[in-house]
C-alpha cells in the first residue's frame, strides 16, 4: 500500500471509530437519563377523561367517579389474595410483584383523585365528600395490604414451597409405584378362567 492509501484508510478508520464512540456514549447517556427520569422524575398520570365539573352536581360524572373508586377497592383486594395463591403454584417473588402492581395502582389512585377532584377541599357535594373519604382510606388499605404481603413472604412462603416440594415428591413416588405395578402385571402370565365342562 502506498503512503497516501494508508493515510486515507487511517482517516476512515478514525472517522468510523469516532462515529461508533459517539453512538455508544449517546446510547449510554440516554439509558442513564431514562432511568433517572423514571426513578427521580415527577410522574403525573394521564387523566382518564376530563375533570368533573367544579360544582360536582352531574349524576353521570359522580357515578363514574363512584365506579372508579369502587374498581380501585375491588382490584386492591383481589390482587392481594391472587398474589398469595399464585405464590403456591409459581416460582416468583411475591414481594417484588406486589411492589410493581401497587406502583401502578397508586398511579391509578392519583388519576382518579385528579379527575374526580378528590382532596381539593370543599366542593359542596355530599357524594363527593363520601368518595373522598373512601378514597383516602384506600391509600391506607394499600399500605396495610403491602404489610400483609411482606409478612406472608417472611413467615409462610418458604414453608409453603417446602410443602409443595414434598407433595411433588409423593406424587413421583406414587407414579413409580404405579409403573412397577404395571410392569409386574405385564410380565405375569395371564390366567384365563377355565369354563367348567358339562
What would a concise description of this structure say?
This protein is mostly helical and 198 residues long.
Description:
- 13% of the residues are buried.
- Helix 3 runs antiparallel to helix 4.
- The radius of gyration is 33 Å and the shape is flat.
- About 3% of the residues have low confidence.
- With 198 residues, it is mostly helical.
- The longest helix is centred in the C-terminal third of the chain and has 62 residues.
- It is 77% helix and 0% strand.
- It has a domain of 114 residues.
Oligomer: single chain
The portion of residues forming beta strands comes to under 5%
Largest sheet: none
* Global structural class: mainly alpha
SS element count, helices: 4
Number of strands: 0
Basic shape: flat
Q: Helices and strands in order, then pairings?
A:
Layout lengths: L2 H38 L18 H31 L4 H22 L10 H62 L11
Helix pairs in contact: 2-3, 2-4, 3-4
Any descriptors?
198 residues; mainly alpha; 4 helices; flat
